[in-house]
Amino acid sequence: MEVKIVKTTSPKAKPDMATVPFGTYFSDHMFMMDYTTDKGWYDPRIIPYGPLEIEPCATIIQYATEVFEGLKAYRTPEGKIQMFRPDENAKRIKNSAERMALPQMDVDMMVDFMRQYVEFEADWVPSDPGTSLYLRPFIYATDPCLSLHPIHEAHFCIIACPVGNYFPDGLKPVPILIEKDDVRAVRGGTGYAKCGGNYAGAMRAGEKAEKNGFSQVLWIDGVERKYVEEAGGMNVMFKINGDVVTPQLNGSVLPGITRKSSLEIVKDWGMNAIERLITVEELIEAAQSGALEEAWMVGTAAVVCPIGELAYDNQRYVINGGTIGEVTQKLYDDLTAIQWGRVPDRYGWNLVVK
Ligand code: COI
After folding, report:
1. Measuring CA to CA, which residue among 273, 277, 224 is closest to residue 249?
2. Which residue of 110, 311, 325, 334 is surrounded by the most CB atoms within 10 Å?
3. 316, 309 Cβ separation under 8 angstroms
4. CA distance linking residue 322 with residue 315, whole number of Å
5. How far is CA 205 from CA 138, 201, 215, in A?
6. What is the mean pLDDT of the chain?
């Protein structure tokens, strides 16, 4: 399908990459495409970035019918542009859309649209160390009707913002609050889908954590209320007695692409990487005995973020003396070297755009 182009007549200045906060400054254009049950997906176009026109009664506004992705395009030392595992994002948004009864898009078609969009916005991919162009593809339903019914109309959109570090302090261990009251997901719910609603329901706990000086929460499962699941905006990993351990994908944990990539990398180093149930009790005991040697979070936006301290039931447990662990640092170095093309792409993960 041919992508129509409407170029902006007022290109913006590029932001100062040393100071631009994550997700606040957008490129000149966005990608849009429409869907109806009669026509399927149609009219792909790259148009100037700007406000969306939407009916107040649209399903997205009333019932949060939306799924999204996050991925990055990187500038290599030779000046090339590459995207990290866009096929994985395209597969995941398809699964998320299926869960939310939103229209799905063919994986290859979506990857091709993302590639064309990044190619068009190429001069927005920054080259300063540690920077990238963060892409936010999303699908939302626009049926102009308040009754609950299957979705007939939707849009697919991609916006992009040049980003530096997700956390203003960079790769620095952060304190995390294990959330005891609110839950993020339940069995049979939408936990594995990347849908806006999962994050909306998490805002109250996130706000409470931040007010108390924590970076974000660590969620516990919503059924038995004892298994660790994921952090506020990222998956979580631990080094316990020499092994890398992460909560298994049980339907309520997001199948993170950085999670998946990290597991492959540490296995290649020869470490045991185990996906299993982890109870809060086990984690706290391991923190007390010193068996919990390292803890970190993984996600597209922040890549790898060390956890320096866990708080639970008004007790605080410092991990690795509050410093970055060896495996955490090595994983960050190895993964980001692949993403920025500083080392050969031994897994074939990158899609070279130009
Ligand atoms: C990402 O890491 O890309 C995410 O989607 C997390 C987001 C909520 C900032």
Report:
1. 277
2. 110
3. yes
4. 15
5. 24, 8, 11
6. 96
From 300, 303, 304, 339, give the residue whose CB has the most ligand 1 atoms within 8 Å, as the site to mutate: 300
Q: Which residue lies with its CA nearest to atom 3 of ligand 1?
A: 70
Among residues of the chain, what percentage have pLDDT more than 90? Answer: 97
Return the domain boundaries, the chain.
4-165, 174-339
As a whole number of angstroms, the distance between CA 330 and CA 324 comes to 10
Question: Which listed CATH number (3.30.930.10, 3.40.50.150, 2.60.40.1120, 3.20.10.10) goes with 174-339?
Answer: 3.20.10.10
Say yes or no to pLDDT of 312 above 90.
Answer: yes
Q: Is the pLDDT of residue 41 over 90?
A: yes
Q: How confident is the model at residue 187 (pLDDT cuts 50, 70, 90)?
A: confident
The pair of three-digit structure tokens given for residue 115, joined into one six-digit string: 């590639």
Pick the CATH number of 4-165 from 3.30.230.10, 2.30.110.10, 3.40.630.30, 3.30.470.10: 3.30.470.10
